[in-house]
Specification:
The chain has six helices and no strands. It has 210 residues and is mainly α. It has a single domain, classed as Formiminotetrahydrofolate cyclodeaminase monomer, up-and-down helical bundle (Four Helix Bundle (Hemerythrin (Met), subunit A)), CATH 1.20.120. Helix 4 runs parallel beside helix 6 and helix 5 runs antiparallel to helix 6. It is elongated. The protein starts with 7 loop residues before the first helix and ends with a helix.
């Protein structure tokens, strides 16, 4: 049964157990989904509120996108677990003959490509969460500014955690062109994520330390 249909206790229990999965990638996806959920909460407390009528359309659009990215992150949580399972299966393929060795190497490379792609997609989703945080901090319900800040912290942490799960798979991946492309894109994501998180943190401290 998908973890999205299970309790938090079930997920954390399996995460803490001596099991191959879920692991860090799935945990990153869950934290990302939590940060998206916080943005949803802020959107729900802002939309329909007369005090924020001028931003109604934008807030509703941010709410819609936040709900979509939350669902996508929950799917990626499952995909990360499956990716590890596929790699594990490929590693157990026979390698007695030359043909078997070649087939195993091909299966491992494909599994590693997928295992690196999933956390990269988690990074992309977490970056979307961060992007939504900025306008929510500026135009959302001011009573929930601290929640936007938490969402930003969580999204940034999940993005960085997913990055680790990208590069760990690069240790064994042979596809250099793919690795170079993804590394360039992750560098941009990490740099921009730092900037956005910093802006939101500044906004929180400025308005909450009065």
């Amino acid at each position: 049964m998908p973890y999205a249909s299970e309790s938090i206790r079930k997920f954390t229990s399996d995460l803490s157990a001596k099991l191959p999965a879920p692991g860090g990638g799935a945990a990153a996806a869950l934290v990302g989904a939590v940060s998206a959920s916080l943005n949803c909460m802020v959107g729900n407390f802002t939309a329909g509120n007369e005090k924020y009528a001028d931003a109604e359309a934008e807030i509703r659009e941010l709410l819609k996108k936040s709900e979509e990215v939350r669902e996508e992150l929950l799917k990626l949580l499952e995909e990360d677990i499956l990716a590890y399972g596929n790699y594990s299966k490929a590693s157990k393929l026979p390698k007695t003959t030359e043909v078997e060795k070649q087939e195993r190497a091909k299966a491992l490379e494909e599994a590693l490509l997928n295992a690196a792609t999933v956390p990269f997609n988690i990074m992309l989703c977490c970056y979307k969460v961060l992007q939504a945080c900025k306008p929510l901090a500026e135009k959302g319900n001011k009573n929930l500014l601290s929640d936007v800040g938490v969402a930003a912290y969580f999204a940034k942490a999940a993005l960085k955690a997913a990055y680790l799960n990208v590069i760990v798979n690069f240790l064994y991946l042979k596809e250099e062109a793919f690795k170079c492309k993804i590394l360039k894109e992750t560098e941009i994501l990490l740099k921009n994520a730092d900037i956005i998180e910093g802006l939101i943190e500044d906004a929180c401290y400025k308005n909450l330390k009065k």
